Amino acid sequence: MTAILSVEGVDKSYGTHHILKSVSLTVEDGETFAVIGPNGAGKTTLFKVMTGEIGFERGRIVYDGRDVSRAPAHERARLGMGRTFQVARIFPDVTVADNLTVAVEARRRSRGESAPAWYRVATRADIRAEVEARLLDVGLADKAAVEAKFLSHGDKKRLEFGIALAGRPRILMLDEPTAGMSPTDRIATADLIARLRAETGLTVVMTEHDMDVIFGLADRILVMNYGEIIAVGSIEEVRANPLVREVYLGQEIYHAER
Ligand SMILES: Nc1ncnc2c1ncn2[C@@H]1O[C@H](COP(=O)(O)OP(=O)(O)OP(=O)(O)O)[C@@H](O)[C@H]1O
């Protein structure tokens, strides 16, 4: 296995509040890597540091062999880091298909894939075909003409996955993909992630509170507490770790089924 993403000794503070304390981790190409921990542990902060939404004081982030510590989020996206947010970021007043079209066009522009003017008609057909493929990927083909604001919470999340996939990512960063969902939508979202991963070989990095979702998807789990890593390893290794037992005593992590 080769590393696709490494975080090396990263420190991040908000004012005098030291949030990430010399955090280091390595994500292997093709694995599903989950970050868990109690509320306020620093998971979202770690995510934002990895995706380039916020800066940090010390350490570095290496993606696909290059130091991206100072690269802004859009540059990391261009290099292949796709992401979704806890609250879906979509255009509510345009249709599902148009949301995807915007994402496909944005990727083409940012990667210099736009065709010359004489080729525009063919390009439109290409874009339409790509949008249709993404609609099928995320199970929204029958809702292509629906304005995004009318979608259910679960379907909004599907659309956000579609938008992320339109960027042709190598690694997909999912910040609490099932947050606020009904149990049915949670299962559907976990199934969608599992299918996309199987079909595309995507590397997935996710935070999530639902242990059933984590145990169903993750190859490895990292546990954070107060901005520090207290364990990293397989589900079995993490469950057996005494520090994890202390933090999660009697909680879902020990009841969820594999
Ligand atoms: N912009 C900010 N300014 C100041 N403090 C912040 C900011 N964002 C987060 N924090 C603080 O940093 C700490 C870690 O927050 P973070 O959102 O990373 O935790 P989390 O593990 O993702 O929590 P949750 O599971 O509740 O989403 C918390 O104490 C939070 O209050």
TrEMBL record:
Pfam family for this entry, one: ABC_tran
Single GO molecular function: ATP hydrolysis activity
Residues annotated as domain ABC transporter: 5-251
Superkingdom classification of source: Bacteria
Classification via InterPro entries: AAA+_ATPase, ABC_AA/LPS_Transport, ABC_transporter-like_ATP-bd, ABC_transporter-like_CS, BCA_ABC_TP_C, P-loop_NTPase
One annotated Gene Ontology cellular component of this protein: plasma membrane
Keywords from the named record: ATP-binding, Nucleotide-binding, Transport
Record SUPFAM superfamilies: P-loop containing nucleoside triphosphate hydrolases
Family to which the UniProt record says this protein belongs: Belongs to the ABC transporter superfamily.
Protein name (Swiss-Prot/TrEMBL): Branched-chain amino acid ABC transporter ATP-binding protein
